[in-house]
Specification:
By secondary structure, the protein is of the alpha/beta class. The strands form 9 sheets. A 6-stranded mixed beta sheet has the order 9-14-13-12-10-11, with helices on both faces. A 4-stranded antiparallel beta sheet has the order 1-2-6-5. The chain has a 4-stranded antiparallel beta sheet with strand order 4-3-7-8, with no helix packed on it. Helix 3 packs across helix 8, helix 13 (583-589) crosses helix 21 (824-835) and helix 16 (696-712) packs parallel to helix 18 (749-757). The chain is globular, with a radius of gyration of 27 Å. The two termini are 53 Å apart. It binds beta-D-glucopyranose (BGC).
Length: 860
């Protein structure tokens, strides 16, 4: 019998969702996945046509490693454009690894009907569109190129106009109930119109250079061109400093060069999840630039409203944008892959990443060392102008406050963000030049209208961490307060003096590095190149010692059975409820009940608690989706968190949480696995769009308000991933080596700030190791920092499948109360450990107690 192809999951193709969880491995628009009866030979790829048109070679992708069967993802996006239509795919000339041929095969696949908005969710959808409007950032706008006059023609260049991305991939994926891509939005939602002659050049998804004839025919010199750049980004997919990644491809550059020279005006639309190179913007004379980010279901509508001026942009950059990748101080120390690197399954730390830039992440570096950048942190233009008048600035009782009156001095309505930065004096600790301490956004101000904003910042937001004495301090001296509409445009408006050293908080020493390594300082302002790092990596080897955690056992309980509803009604019964359980039951509850995404009829939920009929303990479903529910049934689709951060609108972040909570209820989800808030240490981290910002205060405040929205409306929140989940490559084997000061001022700080706004229901530990030990098994992190210092009383879970690399018993022993995604194998391992005296019942009791307490606090 000859070899066969079959369509993997007879499902219809959803043209509104470009890349799914697995397609994240490659940049595949609209892929159909085929199962192969045998592995394909390396050079065994034949010809695939869809409705007679050949699919360009080189874009297909073999998925063997992920699903343990032989799969081929066929990017049919260059042909399948129509909704609700059957297409015919023909495959010929394929050969298996063993030299045998695949039979010529004809397969049919269908595209889904276009999903349309439903009235029942109108209010939720409006919040999503508003987040998109406020999250897009106008980076450049020479000579008021934008907005375009109503009725203008858009001459659109680049395949990206058809691969318009509105979501991150992987855990941050959204599955919106409707969406509007760019072309749909122009037609349905604006008076602008697209020149079809130009756009049709790009339907084949190649970035072709337009001919002189075409440019003459469409009268380029009298019109405005819009060029599109798009990049995929998300979990599993770190980006790369290569053409087609951070850099423009040769085709894109050639196309933009020709277009910008020919057209009267050129607008660039950057539809990426992370900053990309910017040198070409000035070099090629681009007049206006809009950064859309991944703006969710309303992305298309928001973009056309910004183009035609119905929306006045108010987004601000949550990260510094540079001309070149290597302008970033972490560029050389991002993912130093060993040659034989494997993506999964390594048992040892395999990839050592030294955080040499230390506390100088993002703008802290560019600002302190006077380094060039393209667009500063907090930058974002408007179609109007604002005047900022600073009133009293007061520092009293360890709180800084300032009143700023914002007046719209231009001709159109708009919103402005006021940013307050603190410059601390140099002392025995060196300081970043300025740090963000507070920000507020105005309402929409009509021309001439004013609003006075009150900005306040607790001193903890601008302290320095003194490693020698494990404490947060304000050193003596003059503190300057800078206020402005961006870091670059902030003015030194006031100062206050701290007379002697002020100790704001003394803390424990947590997770120090085990090795000295070069750290960027003002005296040594250069980071080393990879080669030096590798020498140091040789010295790492020994893991940090594991500590033990020995909680008091709960008093034994011998009375009548207590049920969960009784605990909900009377929380004082919690201890006895737990104490009545057998060791085996406690082991079972310490393990997640498995994901619901494998079977075609599964909901797509990432996990669930194990129910116990005998205790009337219900099942709680948990779902991913920082900015929507990552379920198979479609639902709300907000912008990715990086774009939510760009709104600088705390209330909007709260509304994002509120709407996700309300929709979680509709779908029977008790706890959301978000928000994710790791610091943007390096812009090429695939999860950049899922995380908020390079700044811990912006990240922490926006994530905290998002988390508060979830909790206030009855859904559990999960702050993740603790800590330093700074890259996805080899993520289970990667080892971050970072100073205590950088941990305290940046990587821990985000979580600490978010927790002050709203305590989460759960926290998720990260896959990677930090300073010689995995956070998932680190007692200092889970107990001393989380519980004792930050007062966290929810439950702690591992990231999915952390037990591939970290001993499950050690994680539970440290207080990690939920091994995910679970399975009976892990329950057995825990039971064995209890029997052998390696795991105490008291630890299990405490872990499960936190879990049940959390369930009882939620609507479960
Ligand atoms: C991701 C988490 C996610 C989990 C469950 C992991 O691969 O790192 O962020 O919550 O999967 O889907």
């Amino acid at each position: 019998m000859s070899n066969k192809f079959t369509i993997m999951d007879g499902k219809e193709l959803n043209l509104d969702q470009i890349e799914g969880r697995f397609a994240a491995f490659e940049r595949l628009p609209y892929a159909v996945t085929l199962r192969l009866s045998k592995p394909l030979a390396k050079d065994g790829y034949g010809v695939i046509t869809v409705d007679g048109t050949q699919i360009p070679k080189g874009r297909e992708f073999l998925m063997d490693m992920i699903v343990k069967s032989h799969c081929l993802m066929v990017p049919v996006g260059s042909v399948a454009h129509d909704y609700d239509k059957e297409y015919t795919m023909h495959l010929t000339g394929f050969t298996a690894e063993d030299g045998t041929p695949f039979a010529d095969t004809t397969l049919k696949f269908k595209t889904k009907k276009r999903q349309l908005p439903d009235l029942a969710h109108k209010e939720h959808d409006e919040v999503a569109v508003q987040a998109a409007r406020e999250g897009m950032v106008l980076l450049k706008n020479e000579n008021a190129t934008l907005p375009l006059a109503p009725g203008s023609a858009l001459h659109c260049f680049g395949s990206a106009q058809y691969i318009f991305r509105n979501t991150a991939t992987g855990a941050g994926l959204i599955n919106p109930r409707w969406q509007a891509n760019f072309h749909q939005a122009v037609t349905e939602h604006s008076t602008l119109y697209v020149n079809q002659k130009v756009s049709s050049l790009y339907r084949g998804l190649e970035d072709v250079v337009p001919s002189d004839e075409l440019l003459a025919e469409v009268e380029a010199s009298k019109n405005t061109a819009v060029v599109f750049i798009s990049r995929c980004s998300g979990e599993f997919l770190d980006n790369r400093p290569v053409k087609g990644g951070y850099y423009l491809t040769d085709d894109e550059r050639a196309m933009i060069t020709k277009v910008s020279a020919a057209y009267a005006k050129t607008v660039a639309v950057i539809n990426t999840g992370y900053p990309v190179e910017m040198g070409w913007v000035d070099e090629l004379g681009i007049d206006a630039v809009i950064y859309t980010g991944f703006a969710g279901m309303g992305a298309g509508y928001a973009l056309v409203e910004i183009l035609d001026g119905r929306t006045n942009p108010s987004g601000k950059l949550p990260d510094t944008w540079t001309y070149d990748y290597y302008d970033h101080p972490s560029a050389h120390n991002f993912i130093n892959l060993p040659a034989e690197h494997k993506a999964v399954g390594e048992k040892e730390f395999g990839v050592h990443i030294f955080y040499e830039e230390d506390i100088y992440v993002g703008y802290r570096y560019f600002d302190s060392f006077n380094k060039p950048y393209a667009y500063s942190f907090g930058h974002g233009l408007s179609y109007t102008t604002f005047d900022l008048a600073c009133g009293d600035v007061v520092f009293a009782n360890d709180t800084l406050s300032a009143n700023v009156t914002v007046t719209n001095t231009g001709a159109v309505a708009g919103k402005e963000v006021v940013q307050l930065y603190v410059q601390a004096p140099e002392g025995s600790l060196e300081k970043p030049y300025r740090v963000l301490a507070a920000f507020e956004k105005t309402k929409e101000l009509a021309p001439g209208e004013s609003q006075t904003l009150s900005l306040t910042a607790d001193a903890s937001l601008f302290t320095s961490y003194d490693e020698a004495d494990s404490r947060f301090v304000l050193e003596a001296g003059d503190y300057h307060v800078w206020i402005g509409d961006s870091l670059a445009h902030a003015n030194d408006v006031a100062s206050f003096t701290v007379d002697g050293l002020r100790i704001i908080e003394s803390v424990h020493r947590i997770n120090p590095p085990m090795v000295d390594f070069p750290r960027l300082t003002k005296a040594h302002p250069e980071v080393s190149e990879d080669s030096k790092i590798v020498d140091l990596a040789d010295r790492i080897g020994t893991p940090a010692p594991r500590k033990s955690y020995t909680p008091e056992p709960l008093p034994a309980y011998k009375g009548a059975r207590i049920t969960y509803p009784q605990v909900k009604a009377n929380p004082s019964l919690l201890d006895a409820f737990i104490a009545q359980m057998s060791d085996a039951e406690l082991c079972t509850l310490n393990v997640c009940g498995g994901a619901d995404w494998y079977l075609p009829w599964g909901t797509g939920a990432a996990g669930k608690t194990v129910p116990f009929g005998k205790y009337k303990l219900p099942r709680m479903m948990v779902s991913d989706g920082n900015t929507g529910l990552n379920l198979k049934k479609s639902n709300i689709g907000f912008p990715s968190s990086c774009t939510v951060a760009a709104t600088f609108n705390k209330d909007l972040a709260y509304q994002v949480g509120r709407v996700i909570a309300e929709e979680s209820k509709e779908h029977g989800i008790g706890l959301n696995l978000g928000p994710a808030m790791n610091i943007h240490r390096n812009i090429l981290n695939g999860r950049h769009p899922e995380y908020f910002s390079e700044d811990p205060v912006l990240s922490g405040l926006m994530a905290g308000h998002h988390g508060k929205g979830l909790r206030d409306f009855g859904c559990g929140s999960t702050y993740k991933h603790l800590f330093c989940n700074g890259s996805d490559t080899s993520r289970k084997a990667s080892h971050s080596i970072v100073s205590e000061r950088a941990l305290r001022e940046l990587y821990f700080k985000t979580f600490a700030v978010a927790m002050q706004i709203s305590q989460p229901s759960a926290v998720m530990t990260s896959y990677n190791a930090v300073n010689g030990i995995y956070p998932a098994e680190n007692v200092d992190i889970l107990q001393t920092l989380l519980r004792d210092e930050w007062g966290f009383t929810g439950y702690i879970m591992t990231d999915w499948g952390t037990y591939d690399t970290v001993d499950p018993v050690e994680m539970v022993k440290a207080g990690n109360g939920w091994l995910t995604e679970g399975g009976s194998k892990y329950v057995k391992e825990l039971k064995k450990a209890v029997k052998e005296g390696r795991l105490s019942r008291a630890v299990l009791e405490h872990n499960v107690r936190y879990l049940v307490k959390t369930l009882a606090e939620l609507d479960v």
